[in-house]
Amino acid sequence: MAKPLGPTGEFFRRRDEWRKHPRLSNQLRQATPGLGIAIVAFGIYLVGEAAYKKIYPEQPPSKTHSH
Fold it and tell me: E strands of the chain, at which residues?
């Protein structure tokens, strides 16, 4: 079993209880509600753009001069 906590251990356990409060857990997700969807959408955009450039490569401008 675990070693019993002394008075110092109990003091620090009580001091750290606020970190486990439900309102404080998962704050980043609550602060940025659409970030996950935005990252996925941006990733799909990047993959689509890469595929488009692979299918339709950019043509260099022709070097003929017409006056």
Answer: none
Residue keyed to tokens 């969807």: 37
Return the pLDDT at 25: 67
pLDDT at residue 61 above 70?
yes
Q: Which residues contact 13 (CB under 8 A, 6 or more apart)?
A: 5
Average pLDDT score over the chain:
78
Check residue 26 and give left, alpha or beta (phi > 0: left; psi -120 to 50: alpha): left
* CA 2/CA 11 separation, integer angstroms: 17
Q: How far is CA 54 from CA 11, 37, 48, 49, 50, in A?
A: 62, 26, 10, 9, 6
Q: Is the pLDDT of residue 29 over 80?
A: no
